[in-house]
Write a structure and sequence with these properties.
This protein has helices at about 5-10, 15, 35-45, and strands spanning about 30-35, 60-65, 70-75, 75-80, 85, 95, 105-110. It is α/β, with parallel strands linked by helices and about 120 residues long. The longest helix is centred in the middle third of the chain and has 9 residues, at about 35-45.
C-alpha cells in the first residue's frame, strides 16, 4: 500500500494547474539567487487587484501559487487585499530575503509610504 501523503502529493490540485495565478507563468525563477521580487508582486497585482488607493474593496480576489523553489526577494512581497499565497504543502517553496533586503518584513499586507502614510 502506498503512503497516504504520497497519494495526496500526486494529486495536489494546485500543483497540477497551469493558470494565470501560478508564478511558473510569471517569469519567476525560484533558484534562490535570482531576484524574484518584481515578478512575484506583478503576479499578485495582476488583473486590476485592490492596491494603492483602493479603499479595501475588491471583486477580484487572487490565489497565487508558488511552485517548489526558493524565491529571493530584495523588497517586501505585498499581499494585496484578498490575496492568498499558496505553495505545495509537501514540496514547500521558500521566500527568502536577500542580504540586501530593504523593508519591514518579507511579506507585507500593510505597506507604508516613505512619509509614513499607509499605501492602502
Amino acid at each position: 500500500m502506498r503512503h497516504p501523503a504520497k497519494r495526496f502529493h500526486e494529486h495536489f490540485c494546485l500543483g497540477a494547474l497551469c493558470h494565470r495565478g501560478s508564478l511558473a507563468n510569471c517569469c519567476t525563477i525560484g533558484d534562490g539567487t535570482t531576484d524574484d521580487t518584481v515578478a512575484i508582486n506583478n503576479a499578485i497585482a495582476d488583473g486590476g487587484r485592490c492596491g494603492k488607493g483602493c479603499d479595501s474593496s475588491t471583486i477580484t480576489p487572487a490565489l497565487v501559487y508558488f511552485p517548489a523553489g526558493t524565491y529571493l526577494v530584495t523588497k517586501p512581497v505585498v499581499a494585496m487585499y484578498y490575496s492568498q499565497l499558496v505553495g505545495d504543502p509537501l514540496n514547500m517553496p521558500t521566500i527568502k530575503g536577500a542580504p540586501s533586503f530593504q523593508g519591514i518584513s518579507i511579506i507585507d499586507s500593510d505597506p507604508y509610504e516613505p512619509d509614513g502614510r499607509s499605501v492602502f
